[in-house]
From TrEMBL:
A Pfam family: DUF8021
This protein's UniProt keywords: Signal
Span of domain DUF8021: 157-260
Region forming the signal peptide: 1-22
InterPro entries, per database record: DUF8021 (IPR058334)
Provenance organism: Pleomassaria siparia CBS 279.74
Protein name as annotated: DUF8021 domain-containing protein
Length: 264
């Protein structure tokens, strides 16, 4: 009598457990995984990460061996901030190491398969250092640390569509003469390109001029933060690994950050 019941219960458990785990991609799960990534970077030990069986590591737009990448060296992290995309089940983390001999400003998208935030399917990193476009980690840190990134109230969160279009329009400015005017610039908007601050950021914008659209676009869209991060290959200016992050507050662009790799 007991046996069939027990077996029945076990079968039910085994069947339901993976489903309940994989059902939803949670913000907490994404941010916890992003935090393990930061700890691993701080220790320089990739063994601290729970990588999926079919894991992909990409650094500066090239698939490569994680053991030979940035994560295998310990860096002191002086500033970090993460956003979460529960639909794509991906996160974006920006970190800055400004105090060591080899400074870095890094933008990393982490992707999970089947909504399983316990395992990392992909780490996709754009890493800028000395010699890269407008690079000065201390200045970048100073500007970004002063920004306000509190969550937006539920009623005033931009749609995913608006955020994606803002990211795309920004990257289209070099090839589409009308793109800059489609972006809802805030009057107090700040743009930090590498370490170069432009305020307000709706000034001095490109209006076409290049025939090559910026390609390889990968998105992390966070409605709670009102942000989109797009990793791409900046083909308009010549195959450069790049991250563009935009924050929209009250329907207007508030912050723009760029990390562009053009060094050796
Ligand atoms: C993953 O989670 C999202 C958001 O919770 C949900 O819309 C989607 O259907 C889920 N996908 C899978 C494959 O479970
Ligand atoms: C492994 O990942 C790669 C890149 O994301 C994908 O193209 C491939 O189909 C995956 N293979 C399996 C067995 O999941
Ligand atoms: C990341 O930043 C948060 C504060 O925003 C801090 O509590 C945490 O310790 C930082 N993580 C690392 C690895 O530096």
């Amino acid at each position: 009598m007991l046996r069939p019941t027990l077996i029945g219960a076990l079968v039910t458990l085994v069947a339901i457990h993976p489903l309940t785990q994989a059902a939803e991609c949670s913000r907490d799960g994404l941010l916890t995984a992003a935090s393990t990534y930061l700890s691993a970077q701080t220790s320089g030990k990739i063994t601290d990460l729970k990588l999926a069986s079919n894991f992909t590591y990409q650094q500066n737009n090239k698939v490569s061996d994680i053991a030979k990448g940035l994560l295998s060296t310990a860096y002191k992290i002086d500033l970090n901030r993460s956003t979460a995309d529960i639909v794509a089940c991906a996160s974006y983390t920006m970190w800055i190491s400004s105090s060591g001999t080899k400074p870095y400003v890094v933008g990393t998208q982490i992707r999970h398969r089947d909504n399983n935030t316990l395992e990392i399917a992909m780490i996709d990193t754009i890493a800028a250092t000395t010699g890269d476009l407008f690079f000065n980690a201390k200045d970048t840190q100073k500007y970004i640390a002063a920004e306000d990134w509190t969550s937006l109230p539920a009623a005033s969160r931009p749609s995913r569509d608006l955020l994606r279009k803002a990211g795309d329009a920004y990257l289209d400015m070099w090839t589409d003469a009308t793109a800059a005017d489609k972006i809802p610039w805030g009057t107090d908007c700040e743009r930090v390109e590498g370490s170069r601050l432009t305020k307000p950021c709706g000034g001095q914008l490109p209006h076409g001029g290049s025939a090559k659209p910026n390609g390889m676009r990968r998105y992390v869209i966070d409605q709670e933060m009102g942000s989109v991060d797009v990793l791409c290959q900046f083909d308009s200016l010549g195959n450069l690994p790049d991250s563009h992050e935009i924050r929209v507050v009250d329907g207007k662009v508030k912050y723009v950050h760029t990390i562009t790799v053009n060094g050796k």
